[in-house]
Structures are given as structure tokens and as C-alpha cells.
Write a structure and sequence with these properties.
The chain is of the alpha+beta class. Helix content is 75%, strand content 7%. The radius of gyration is 33 Å and the shape is globular.
Amino acid sequence: MMHPNHSLDLVSLKAMKPGIFIFSFLLPVWLFSQTPRIDNLRKILTHLKDSARIDSMNKLSLLFIEQPMKDSAEYYAISAYNQAATILYFHGMAESLSLQGTIKTRFYGNFVEAEKLDKESIGLYQKTWNQSGLADTYGHLSFACFSQSKYDEALKISMECYSINKNNQDEAGMLDILQLITQIHLKRGEFDRGFDVAQNALEISTRRGDQTGIKNCLLGLGTVCMGIEDYSLALNYYRIVFQNFSREDSISLIESEDLIWAKMEYAEIYSHLNMFDSALSRFNLFDTSKVDEKDLRIFLVSKGEYFMLLGQYEKALPGLLRGLAIHLKLNDGNEIVRTVLDLANTYYALGNEKEALRYARQGLNLGLKAHALQRMRDAYKVLYEVYDRRGKTDSAYNYYRSYIQTKESLTDDQTKGKFAANGYVQKIELLNNEKLISQQKLKIQDQQLKNETLIRNILIAFVFVVLLLGILFIRNTFLKRRNEKLKNENLYNELRHKTSDMEMQALRAQMNPHFIFNCLNSINRFIMKNESQTASDYLTQFSRLIRLVLNNSKKAWIPLEDEMDMLRLYLDMERLRFKGAFNYDLSCEEGLDPSGLLIPPLLLQPFVENAIWHGLMHKKENGLVSISFTVENDILHCTIFDNGIGRAAAASAGSKSSQTHKSMGIQITRERLALINGDLNDEKVAFNIEDMIDETGQATGTKVNLSIRYQQNYETSGESIPSLKLKDYD
């Protein structure tokens, strides 16, 4: 049987070399051809109106995306939408939203926002007869869902995109979406289906003579082989692509994001085959100083896995942690679960069972959510190993049983994929035997053509060199200006951040003396009344409370759980002072973990103090203070309710001094909340106070509603990934 590498080489190698050569020469020419198009569109834009103007602005945005020039692309897309909305031009609005979704994906890696924009775009497309651009929008949306590990939804949307392209007889569009469908099947563990789709895409690319498509399809087949853990066959596919690139080709063509992934996967294959020297040489070709974070993270995790396979876990850890931080920033669900499980294995090998257990649980939750059998298998393996090492045989057995069941299911899927891969290799061998003679004739004809076109190629090469030098000059000038602009912006942001921190510290410094003054007054009253035991008890609780206050006031942010503990101590002190004249209730909504949220310290105490002193102090019967917490849209909502006499009655009964203290505490807290929430001019952002009345118009109490923009506490063991609530397995 012919070696798989040789059989595939006969089909695609012949077609790929001329395509790469032509593309490398035409790339700068194409880029320069965009400049006149942009200039022409800008010139005629002032003479256009209504839908024609909007369509031209959308075309400009697309050209700037291809350049790539983020700011200009974003400006024209948003401007086109605003003008289209004014005249209810639905197609213009839909196309603009689709472009904005592409910008969010390409320049920001913000897949959540891209999904939202693409779905809104599709809704507008359905309101107009002009469906041009709808297929592209489905493609963008499918990729955004795929990147968030929403594989079922991504597959459904991809099939809709494929159907539209097929009806439009758009083979290029069909080819693009087939390559994405291949990756979706791979993540779902449907390796045989993934291989079938990749074959279909390769046949379309070969028939069309699409050299870039052939290259991408071969890489897709290689990734499927990595999924079935047939690294030898995967290496054959990757060699076909990369062995035909010169050093110059690598610099000019393999710096795009997709091929950066491919280069790292190429190195990973060598690592899995224990060819570590070859893997290291591939990693060393990657210049980490010249890439953005969204590309650097690929290198960090791949190199970390290289060290893991070498058994050098201490070296693996920094790259994996840094890569995970960037994945989280970009919300790349596929890479998050991969890196989380890498960290679980690394910590287990280093003997850190606590961290291994935490990351394994997170990986299991993410794997279950995405129905990714391979990730579930790896998570179950770490969990049963940790519990087995701890001697917890029941838990170890349960996870081991789940590991075996998942592994068997995954092995079945991988076996199907291997049958599909081997069948395809045999099919290619038969086709190559039939085409061998015709290929020999084509080689003779190619040699003749090379001799005839030698002079023309020399002239083209000369033009290429001149244009390349011009591009480098323009690019260097542009990068220099952009770097200066970014440097100035970073300096401004740093100064503004330091100013905000100093303002926050000043407000906390005002808050602490105010709070301590009120507590000391309470202790003084007990002493004056000769209630020594009560004063002692009160002073004991006060010492505990003041210790918490002093410790927490040094921090800009503390867990909500600590703030609740301080409130309980304070409320117990006040109940002691008023001899149980009121009760209190302190609660969180179901599912809210108070240790996972961070808020500024001593933020809520002034409102609770007002509820007691001005609401319940003048009430004859027993009172109630209720404090509850909920979270909605990344905002912590706190409701403080008392069934006291109401603000109007309290104002008439209270002293001028107490009102002054109340105003000072509320004003300080309002300023702190405004700094936290980012709007000093809008008091509604901070809080609002409601007077509660019954059906007869009588006051029944007061309710304070606070909105706090919290931070996530990543140091808690229960949750370390934003927006993912991880179930605690034991």
C-alpha cells in the first residue's frame, strides 16, 4: 500500500506550488488596488444620498476590514447603520450590523458581542427582499457560537449557511462553511462525519483549482486525525502543506491567524510523537515579540503542553496560566476548557491536589456543557486520580467509572473516524494510479512553460520588489504614528486610574472616623447608665467589629461575604443596645455566592444605621430590618428595608445633629458609589430611597435600593472563570 503522505502529495502538491507563487506576487498588488477603490468611494460619497450612500459606506467598511484598519472600518459601519435607521433601509442596517459583528470577531475577539450583532442582522435581513450578505452573516454567527463552545447551535446555523450558498451556487461560500463544519464535528467527537465533510471540501477546492482552499482542507483533515489521535497520519497532512513553503513564503503567508494555529498544531504533533527536537525547532520559529495577545496565547498553551509531555511541569505552568488569562479575556470557550484541563494535569503532577481538583471540576463543567467527550474524559481522569491519592475510594470509584464510560464512548467515535480516514487514503491511491501518466505529461508541459515565461517572471519580480519596499516604508511610518498614539493613550489612562484610586482612598478615610464616632457614642451611653455588663459585651463586639473595619478599610475591595459579616456584628451590637427591640434578616438570592463577589468595604453600613436610628428608634413595637442581595446584568442589587415610622415622621422627631450626620454618611457613600459605577452626575446609578405606605396612606417603612458594579473574586476555589457558575463535585 502506498504511504498516505505520498498519495496525498500526488493530488495536491502539483496544484499548490503555482498557487502559492502567484499569491505571493499578487498580494501586494491586491493591497494597492484597494487604495484607489477606497479613494474613489470616498470622493463620490459626498454626492450620494439615501440607500446609495449607505451601500457605499458599508463597502468602505469592508475594504478597511480587509486592509486591516479597525478604526476606519468601525466608523463607516456605525455611520451606515445610523443613516440607514433614519430612513428605515433594512438591508443597509442588516449589512452594517453584520460588518460590526465581523469587526468584533476579527479585531477584538469579542464573540459574545459578535453573536448578538449577527443575530440582529439576520432579523433585519428577513424584513427585506435583498438577501445579499445573509449567507456571510450566518457564517460569522456560526463561528461566534463555535468559539463559545455552542456546538449544537453552531452546527444548525452552519447548515443553514451551507443551504443558502448551495442555492446561490456559491462554491466559495460552500467551501468556507464546510471547513467550519469540519471543526464543529471534531469538537463534538463526530470524527467520521468530520472526515467526510473535510473530504467533500477538498474535492470542491481541487475542482475549482483553489490553492488556498486545498491548503486549508488538508489542514482540516490533519486536525481530524489529531482528534482521533492518529498523529502519524496528521503529520503527513501537515507536511504536505508546510514542506512546500520557502522561508519567504512562511514570513509573508503564514502570519495570518488561521495559519498561526496551524504552525502550533504542527509543533504539537511532533510533541505527541515524542519528536521533541523537531517540535522545539518549530516553536523557535515563532517570534513572540511581534504578535498580538490573541495570537500569543496559542503559542503559550502549545509550548506549555510541550513541557508537559516532556515532564517539565514547572516550566509548563507560567505559559498555561498566562494563556488562560488571555482566553478568558477573549471568551474563547474552546481554548478555555483545553487550558483548564492542562492546568489540572500540571498541578496534579506537581502534587498540588487542591488546584488540580479545582481546575478539573471547572474543565468537567465546561466539557459537560459543550458535550465534548474528550474534555470530559480528561477531567474524569484527573478527578479520580486526585481522590484515589487522597484515599477517598468512593469518590475515586465514581469518577473512575465515569472516566471508563466516557473513554469507551470516545474510543468508539475515534474508531469510526479511523475507518473513514483509512478508506479515504485507499480511495486517493486508486485515483493517483489513474492520473500518474497524465501528471508526467503535465510536468513536461510545465517545464516548457517555465522556459517561455522566465523573462516575464523576472520583470514581475522586479515590480514586486519595488512595491514591497514601498509597502514596508508606508507600513513603518504608519506603525510609528500608531505606537506614539497608543503610548499617549496608555499614559493618560494610567494617570486617570491613579486619580480614581486616590479619590476612593480619600472617601474611605472620611468614612471610617464617622463610623467609629457613632459606635463610641453607643458605648458611652451604656457607661453613663451604669450598665457595666452590657457595656462590656458591647465593647467586646465593638472590638471585633473595629478589627474587621481596620483590616478591611486598608483594602479597596473585599468579598461580599466579609461585608455581610461586618453588618451582622453591627446589627447584633445595635440589638444589644436597644435590648432586642428589633430583628433583622440578611440573605442572598439562590445561587449567589457572596465569597465570589468583591465590593468596597463599609459601603452598606450607613444605610443600615439610618434604618435603625431614624426608622425603628421611634417605633413602639418590635421592628424589622431586612437586607437582601441579588445579581442582574453584572450589577449587584442590594435592598435595605425597615418597617419603621418613615422618613417624614423621623425628620420631625429627629435632631438637627442627627440629620447632619445622616447627610454626611449618605453623601460620602453616594460619592463612593459614583466612583465605582462611573457616573458622578447620575444619582440613580448609586441608589434611590422609597417611602413605603399602606392603602390608607400611612407610612409603613422605608426601602433603599442600591446598584453596585462589583468585581469578580478569582481567588475563591468555587469559581475562577467569569460568567460560569461551576457545580461543586465531591
